[in-house]
Write a structure and sequence with these properties.
single chain, alpha/beta, four-stranded mixed β-sheet
Length: 216
Amino acid sequence: MKDISVSTFPNECQKRIMDGLGFGWKEQLSMDTIRDFFQAAARYLGVKKNKDKPVVLELRDLNGGFHLAGIVQFLPQSEEGSDEGSWALNFTFDETDIDKSWEIINFADHPEAYQVFYDTTYANHGITWRFKALDANDEVCDGNAIQILCVLVDCLADYMRLNVTIDPELGIDDMITFKAELSGDKVYIGVTCGPMLKQFCKADASIGTIGAPTAA
């Protein structure tokens, strides 16, 4: 399995962000931000998890287009009369994997969700996002972090699809692994979360105070 840091992912992200969005950007920023996004999503889902129904955190662009979702759900014990079970964390690039009856949260619409992301990027890598999510008229600001995240996720998905026959597995450290499989003319991208990422989702105590002031 190839680590994402030695793939073409960082360079392609830098090119798309600089050419498409006109921002100054470095390859290492792509690596730090994609790591922090998955960690922040797991932390946020750890707060919102619900034994009654799966909880979904969707990453949608400013036009409402679907790019990725994180899902946490409770898996009860199969033994009759037992109320114990475990939490399952997963991510999907396929919107059809999501049941509309589940609790669905759009990352862009929830200040708590992107505050966890801001807190995580600052704590881990000293990254601050100097633009606000919304302006004084509640309009989305030009340069919103969501635009960056959608580019990063799209670069990741495109890499998996383009390399499905030659390099089908890609990992972000030991945190999360992606595996592309070809079925007919469609590429399916499977996601496996590592123990560290799962722990962020399971352990509420590791999250701290959501919405605490930061330099973002």
